[in-house]
């Protein structure tokens, strides 16, 4: 059975959960969400490593109604495609931040939920402290003094590996264009079930680099 990336996720106890796209919010928004959760008898809330809110114990038939009342949307969390973008506060809020991660994440949000040969995780950090671990994601952007460094082919899963640097000193606009080229090239050429690192390994780094950078 094919599952959409925003489908409710069945839990071990038989209940269902949804991931809410709320990486940044306000006290008023949280109050509203809490009120609706009580109305729908939600059992529990947790937060993902991608800073999304997981609503646990919701009737899968009432997800649309819940989202409408709480003014939230379900984030892509499962399946083969681009998962929710993981990002730190960056220079907008963090004293250590060197680059604007929030704007960068907003630019890349258009790719969230896009179907691909396999899952793709994207992370953005505002400085080399790498709170979001961009070097071990399929695509990672690390903020440095002169712009973003772009990593590709990382993984923190069963076959962990550090991504390779594809480009450095990128502006937000340059990074966005390269990420789009990577996703498009991968989408058109990778085999089903082939993660980005494996795809690069099979075609060779040099071929991948030329295909993206020209």
**Amount of helix:** 25-40%
Strand order of the largest sheet: 5-6-7-8-9
Task: Count up the helices.
Answer: 7
- Assign the CATH class of the largest domain: Alpha Beta
Mind explaining what this structure looks like?
By secondary structure, the protein is α+β, with helices and mostly antiparallel strands. It has two domains: 9-70, Alpha-Beta Complex (Sulfite Reductase Hemoprotein, domain 2); 86-213, 2-Layer Sandwich (Sulfite Reductase Hemoprotein, domain 1). Helices cover 32% and strands 19% of the residues. The protein has seven helices and nine strands. The chain has helices at 27-39, 63-70, 90-93, 101-108, 172-189, 196-203, 205-213, and strands at residues 9-10, 16-20, 44-47, 53-56, 86-87, 122-125, 139-144, 147-152, 164-170. Strands 5-6-7-8-9 form a five-stranded mixed beta sheet, with helices on one face. It has a four-stranded antiparallel beta sheet with strand order 1-2-4-3, with no helix packed on it. A hairpin with a 2-residue loop joins strand 7 and strand 8. The model has no long low-confidence stretch (mean pLDDT 94).
């Amino acid at each position: 059975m094919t599952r959409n990336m925003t489908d409710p996720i069945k839990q071990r106890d038989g209940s269902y959960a949804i991931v809410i796209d709320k990486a940044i919010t306000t006290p008023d928004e949280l109050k509203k969400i809490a009120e609706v959760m009580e109305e729908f008898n939600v059992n529990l809330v947790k937060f993902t490593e991608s800073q999304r809110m997981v609503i646990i114990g919701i009737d899968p038939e009432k997800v649309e109604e819940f989202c409408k009342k709480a003014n939230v949307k379900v984030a892509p969390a499962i399946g083969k495609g681009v998962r929710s973008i993981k990002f730190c506060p960056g220079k907008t809020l963090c004293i250590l931040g060197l680059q604007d991660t929030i704007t960068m994440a907003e630019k890349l949000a258009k790719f969230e939920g896009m179907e691909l040969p396999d899952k793709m995780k994207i992370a953005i950090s505002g400085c080399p402290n790498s709170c979001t671990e961009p070097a071990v994601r399929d695509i990672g952007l690390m903020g440095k003094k002169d712009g973003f460094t772009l990593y590709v082919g990382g993984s923190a899963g069963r076959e962990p590996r550090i991504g390779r640097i594809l480009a450095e000193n990128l502006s937000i606009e340059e990074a966005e264009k390269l990420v789009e080229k990577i996703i498009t090239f991968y989408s058109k050429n990778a085999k089903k079930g082939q993660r980005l690192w494996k795809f690069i390994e099979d075609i060779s780094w040099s071929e991948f680099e030329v295909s993206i950078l020209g």
